[in-house]
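Hi all, long-time lurker, first post. I run a small reading group and we've been trying to get comfortable going from sequence to structure in the token notation. Rather than ask abstract questions, I figured I'd post a concrete chain and ask someone more experienced to write out its structure so we can walk through it together at our next meeting. Sequence below, copied exactly:
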Amino acid sequence: MNSSQSDRPAVEPAESLVARVRKLLDKAERTDNEHESEAFARKAAELVAHYRIQPEQLADAGARDDLGIVELNIGRGAYVRGRLALLMAVAAAHDVRVVFRALPGGTVAYAAGHRRDLDVVEVMYTSLHQQASGQMAMIKRSTGAATQRFRRSFLFGFATRLGDLLAEARSSVEASAGSAEHVAANALALQERAEKVDEFVRSSWGRVRAAGAPRSVQPDGFASGVSAAERADVGRTRLGGRPALGSGPT
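-- Answer (accepted) --
Happy to help. Here is the structure in token form:
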């Protein structure tokens, strides 16, 4: 066994990954020690990034990693498209496909992919959305309408930059996976997984209609969201006690 194989950790059971991440985020939230909170949060982020692309895990997925669809309530109002943009940014980095429907009770997103990827996407989206919401709640402008426009633009900037950062992180982790042969095998395994998702989506959803483009955003709000995304991470800001944003008008 060569060093790149012997240094690699044991494969993380699919059913325990999300539970471990949630426990770490909960510990990060509960401790009053800033250094402990950061350590717990960093470990959660490492688990999400690292175990996503282990080729042994992909090869051993089997029935434990079957394909499925989950529903996520996106809510209603002025920030729906921004939330969807954030969800899609996280989903794209994990080979998960997303569609949505506007229902009387609010917008519902349907995410399709391998179940362990769906779990990770749900954890990351929840954490990142809470981080964005906490910062948006502190944004005030001269009028309610101006505040809402800035917050909405902020969320689009946050989502756009997070998509870039997640794509860069994925590429970096994949490139450092070991030998050239190991990297190539990993890339092939990921490609095969993505193709299975696409086949599953075609058979499950059929033809999907593209949504219209969202309304234009304010450059200063968008730039503020981009800057906030640079500081974001899974669980790095505490998830408890965040004020909820009002739904606002549609």
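A couple of things your group might point at:
Confidence is low (pLDDT under 50) at residues 1-15, 53-63, 234-250.
The first helix runs from residue 3 to 6.
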